[in-house]
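User: Please fill in residues for this 231-position structure.
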């Protein structure tokens, strides 16, 4: 038992890091799963910038279209391959090619927000900085020695790490505020993708708790009635 406890204690730092909880550079994403416009923008941004390497194999285009109430044109804009709208979202990049080019195959991101947290994803996308010692010329404060290129650099600009630990980007097509919203939209979409029924589950949960509360009162009164004459 002591050995099991010791192993669990040893694993806590790794678990905390995976959740982004012990990283000083992880900040709140302030996402809103009820903001369907943000989710639509995030879906489009993901497909335009991330889907070339990362899949969402547990998600389907049709599910996104239905949940976000997308028009036919909006759905068509999401699909950059010959995939049908009812198919799962996969990438054309093979595992072998991914491993060869990046050192490891790019992971599927369907459950990434549940594994790392939306705050981790948001902070990760905002903390790339120039590091010529790395294979792709960039590093990351949240994920040191990252093996992924900064695919959003054209939007953010060239990010330079300052002496005070902040990152200043110049030359991007978006302003700092626009880039922040762009990253937040992607994060919001990945949070939705990790648990599409979250809002419905929370809505039903309130009714379930209400039912249990009423049932508890009835059960308590019934118990008092049964035991009233017992001394």
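Assistant: Residues filled in for all 231 positions:
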């Amino acid at each position: 038992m002591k050995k099991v406890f010791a192993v669990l204690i040893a694993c806590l730092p790794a678990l905390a890091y995976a959740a982004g909880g012990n990283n000083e550079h992880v900040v709140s994403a302030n996402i809103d799963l009820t903001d369907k416009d943000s989710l639509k923008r995030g879906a489009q941004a993901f497909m335009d910038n991330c889907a070339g390497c990362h899949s969402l194999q547990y998600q389907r285009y049709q599910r996104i279209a239905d949940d976000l109430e997308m028009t036919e044109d909006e759905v068509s804009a999401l699909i950059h391959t010959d995939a049908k709208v009812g198919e799962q979202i996969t990438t054309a990049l093979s595992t072998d090619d991914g491993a060869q080019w990046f050192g490891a195959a790019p992971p599927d991101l369907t459950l990434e927000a549940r594994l790392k947290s939306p705050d981790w994803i948001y902070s990760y996308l905002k903390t790339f900085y120039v590091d010529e010692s790395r294979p792709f010329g960039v590093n990351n404060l949240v994920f040191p020695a990252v093996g992924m290129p900064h695919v959003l650099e054209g939007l953010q600009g060239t990010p330079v790490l300052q002496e005070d630990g902040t990152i200043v980007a110049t030359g991007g097509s978006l302003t700092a505020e626009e880039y922040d919203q762009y990253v937040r939209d992607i994060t919001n979409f990945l949070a939705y993708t990790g648990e599409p029924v979250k809002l419905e589950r929370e809505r039903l949960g309130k009714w379930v708790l209400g039912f249990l509360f009423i049932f508890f009162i009835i059960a308590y009164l019934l118990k008092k009635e049964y035991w009233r004459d017992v001394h």
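For context: The longest strand covers residues 56-60.
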